């Protein structure tokens, strides 16, 4: 990947094929040319041979296979490539934002962003390289509580993004039995140690499969949860599901009912409470009790005192 425009071309091809319909080389070429023109790229004419070469480069460079179907006379991305789709989509979204901002030449009032909050993304490359090469890392870590920042020595296994924040997943060298998470925005003085570690065979994705948020609570049972909302909240939850396991059970003008299969954690309780105006817990009863207790405490804290 020698240039930004080359990476963009890769992503344009992936986006067109992912849209479905088994596009031909000609259709992919036309799509890439249109996208390049709309993004203001200089070279906008490509041959079908260039598209074939790009498809080959995508497989080697982005680890995404684009196959040709003789039966459908077009290209597709195999179903077993699904685990890589979310990562690719994040890259696509990042390029969309980058291109939009680059196109906004000084018109500050047309791009309205939230106040900048450091995410610790400057640590990503160092941590990923250390995890891949099995090197121990050391850093100073600030917890959200009032305790003082402490030095941590960690065997890095992966990084994970949750709700806009990035986290390091790994074990502390002094207690290699509990998988822990560390927010990158609270890491400072990061250093890669010269000593390497023996990686324990663990499937990180599986460990987080039934979790909500960043924490893994193995002692929490995985439960089937059924929730009801009004149709307005349902529209939001269709566009941004609560969890990857979300299934729509009922969807009409009166109500929106979904089921999720996960561990009921405090993070999940906080998430569904954000839609308290229409939330109704159908099952399990234990979750309904937790929601009621949460709201009762909130009511007691916020009672209006009428002065006589």
UniProtKB/TrEMBL annotation:
UniProt xrefs under Pfam families: WYL
Domain WYL: 122-191
InterPro entries assigned: CBASS_pafABC_assoc_protein, WYL_dom
Single GO MF descriptor: DNA binding
Alphabetic keyword roster: DNA-binding
Protein name: Predicted DNA-binding transcriptional regulator YafY, contains an HTH and WYL domains
Native organism: Williamwhitmania taraxaci
């Amino acid at each position: 990947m020698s240039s930004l425009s080359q990476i963009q071309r890769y992503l344009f091809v992936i986006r067109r094929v992912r849209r479905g319909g088994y596009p031909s080389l000609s259709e992919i070429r036309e799509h890439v040319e249109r996208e390049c023109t709309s993004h203001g790229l200089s070279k906008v004419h490509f041959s079908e041979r260039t598209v074939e070469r790009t498809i080959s480069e995508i497989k080697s460079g982005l680890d995404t296979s684009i196959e040709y179907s003789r039966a459908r006379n077009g290209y597709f991305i195999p179903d077993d490539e699904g685990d890589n789709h979310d990562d690719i989509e994040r890259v696509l979204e990042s390029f969309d934002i980058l291109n939009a901002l680059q196109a906004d030449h000084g018109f500050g009032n047309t791009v309205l962003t939230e106040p900048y909050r450091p995410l610790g993304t400057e640590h990503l490359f160092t941590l990923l390289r250390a995890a891949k090469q099995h090197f121990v890392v050391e850093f100073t870590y600030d917890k959200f509580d009032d305790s003082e920042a402490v030095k941590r020595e960690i065997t890095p296994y992966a990084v994970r993004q949750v709700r806009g924040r990035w986290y390091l997943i790994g074990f502390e060298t002094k207690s290699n039995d509990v998988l822990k998470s560390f927010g990158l925005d609270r890491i400072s003085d990061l250093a890669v140690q010269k000593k390497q570690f023996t990686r324990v065979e663990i499937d990180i994705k599986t460990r987080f499969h039934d979790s909500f948020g960043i924490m893994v609570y193995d002692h929490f049972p995985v439960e089937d949860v059924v929730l009801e909302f009004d149709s307005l909240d349902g529209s939001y939850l269709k566009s941004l599901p609560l969890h990857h396991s979300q299934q729509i059970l009922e969807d009409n003008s009166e109500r929106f009912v979904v089921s999720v299969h996960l561990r009921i954690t405090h993070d999940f309780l906080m998430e569904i409470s954000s839609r308290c105006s229409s939330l109704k817990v159908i099952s399990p009863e234990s979750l309904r009790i937790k929601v009621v207790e949460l709201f009762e405490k909130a009511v007691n804290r916020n009672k209006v005192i009428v002065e006589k």
